[in-house]
Specification:
The chain has helices at 2-46, 78-87, 136-152, 156-164, 173-182, 187-202, 206-214, 223-231; strands at 51-52, 55-60, 63-69, 91-97, 107-110, 117-119, 123-129. By secondary structure, the protein is α+β, with helices and mostly antiparallel strands. The model has no long low-confidence stretch (mean pLDDT 87).
Length: 235
């Protein structure tokens, strides 16, 4: 269990590093926007126009409407693009589609081009890539993977080996890899269900259950997943 504690600490450090990275990226975006705002202010003064940051005011018949300059969001993740829209009082709508050219998770298109000014409250529609359209074989492998996760509570590695085994499903490694990458499963929950079965059915100790969960000859869960199961075994 001492090994699992060390790995848990590593997981915490990884999560902390991820949080720091996200904060740094947000700060960079903020500085870029400030730089763009200062540039626009200089250009505005030359043109004798009054603009503030990324907005300007258009007055028509005593009605003032704030406008926002749309940023190039092509390199933003879905979550980050939504956050930017919310920050600038713009609506965010998202759809997904298959693409042979655009990698999964990347932006295919947005309804309003970068650089254009729109009224606050305007909704921008984004289409993100699902990657290449899967083959029938890949969909079959995914369906099998889902059943192993849902009904047998297997680990990711366990499912992969079952999919590729000549004594199992016999899928090609690349096909099984697609299934694993697109499988939506809570492997911590799976590990917990397995742990409960060992505790209730075989009356095993927590240490023995942990070893069985992480063993390459056992369930092949990650140390973090096994630790979660042991920590919540008595919940």
């Amino acid at each position: 269990m001492e090994k699992s504690t060390e790995l848990s600490l590593k997981d915490k450090l990884k999560n902390k590093a991820g949080e720091i990275k996200e904060k740094v990226e947000d700060k960079i975006d903020e500085l870029e926007e400030e730089a763009e705002s200062r540039k626009e202010e200089r250009e505005s003064k030359k043109a004798e126009e009054a603009k503030e940051e990324t907005t300007e005011e258009v007055t028509t018949e005593k009605v003032t409407v704030k406008q926002v300059k749309v940023k190039d969001l092509s390199e933003y993740s879905k979550k980050k693009a939504e956050k930017w829209c919310k920050k600038h009082n713009l609506g965010f709508e998202c759809d997904e589609d298959y693409s042979d050219k655009v990698k999964e998770g990347k932006l295919i298109s947005q309804s309003i081009k970068a650089g254009k000014r729109v009224d606050e409250g305007t909704t921008i529609e984004f289409v993100y890539s699902l990657g290449k359209k899967p083959t029938k074989e890949e969909l079959n492998a995914l369906k099998k993977a889902e059943s192993y996760s849902e009904y047998m509570h297997m680990s990711k590695q366990g499912i992969y080996e079952q999919l590729t085994s000549e004594y199992g499903e016999g899928f090609e490694p690349a096909t099984a890899k697609y299934a694993i990458e697109h499988l939506k499963a809570d492997f911590k929950k799976n590990a917990l269900e397995k742990a409960k079965s060992y505790q209730e059915g075989l009356a095993m100790s927590k240490n023995a259950i942990y070893d069985q969960l992480v063993s390459e000859y056992g369930e092949q869960f990650t140390p973090a997943e096994a630790k979660y199961a042991i920590d919540h075994l008595d919940d």
